[in-house]
Design goal:
Order of helices and strands: HHHHHHHHHHHHHH
Structural class: mainly alpha
Radius of gyration: 20 Å
Shape: globular
Number of strands: 0
Low-confidence stretches: none
Mean pLDDT: 95
Length: 237
RNA sequence: CAAUGUCACUGAA
């Protein structure tokens, strides 16, 4: 089962994702029993391609095999429904989790943010804080994105301060998300400052800034930034 | 020995 799951993990991560689901059927044929880790991997695969139907099939299988109370499997179920936009279902699963950890909260919040329920996402963030869950880097990235989507400028700035004070200033994903947030707010000077202070820049960092210029009509800056990116050895995708 | 939640872009009536 470890070999099969390792293979499926690779397919779920790098594609073709459908192959991960094929592996599952082959396992069944060869009478290899999946475990919690296998199910987590399968649910991730379904979520990443938005295949709700397959996800529900696997959910039913999980219930049959009595794996639904596993923490990681439970979080994966929340993630599946959140990624597929079935937010009511995601919330129901979340409420029934025996342990709600930072991963469970993040999965739910990211789902709300992604599917246009920014207010609900912010409210859920508040609820999480009152439960004394410690935020981590992934949660911070989601918080920033939520503020960005909601246009919650004041709150976004507060989150930024908190990120700095908690020592996450070198996290590339968080930093890229912050650039995107300032760009969305049309606070392009702040976006540039963020960008210039980065210890490392990847193609996402550059694109976040370029997209900000583009969105607010600074065509000349788009082009010069694009040029500079290539001078610095980053290739566009 | 395998595992769950996050980053940019993807046009218009």
């Amino acid at each position: 089962v470890v070999s099969w799951t390792a293979l499926m993990t690779g397919y779920a991560e790098y594609g073709p994702v459908e192959k991960a689901l094929e592996c599952f059927h082959q396992m069944e044929q060869r009478s290899v029993s999946p475990n919690a880790i296998t199910f987590a991997c399968l649910l991730k695969a379904c979520g990443s391609i938005g295949d709700l139907k397959k996800g529900q099939e696997i959910h039913a299988y999980i219930v049959n095999e009595q794996y639904e109370n596993d923490t990681v499997v439970g979080n994966s179920l929340v993630g599946l429904y959140a990624k597929c936009g079935s937010l009511t279902e995601a919330r129901e699963i979340f409420e029934e989790l025996t342990v709600q950890d930072v991963v469970s909260w993040t999965a739910l919040i990211a789902g709300y943010a992604e599917y246009g329920c920014g207010q609900e996402a912010l409210k859920t963030l508040d609820n999480m804080q009152s439960e004394n869950i410690s935020p981590d880097a992934v949660l911070y990235a989601c918080s920033v994105k939520t503020c960005s989507i909601e246009g919650a400028t004041d709150r976004g700035l507060l989150v930024h301060v908190e990120i700095a004070s908690e020592g996450f200033e070198r996290d590339m994903t968080i930093n890229n998300t912050l650039i995107g947030m300032y760009a969305k707010f049309n606070m392009l000077t702040e976006a540039e400052d963020m960008f210039n202070m980065l210890p490392e820049r990847n193609v996402v960092s550059w694109t976040a800034l370029i997209a900000g210029y583009s969105e607010h009509g600074h065509g000349k800056l788009v082009l010069s930034c694009f040029e500079q990116m290539q001078i610095e050895g980053i290739f566009p995708n």
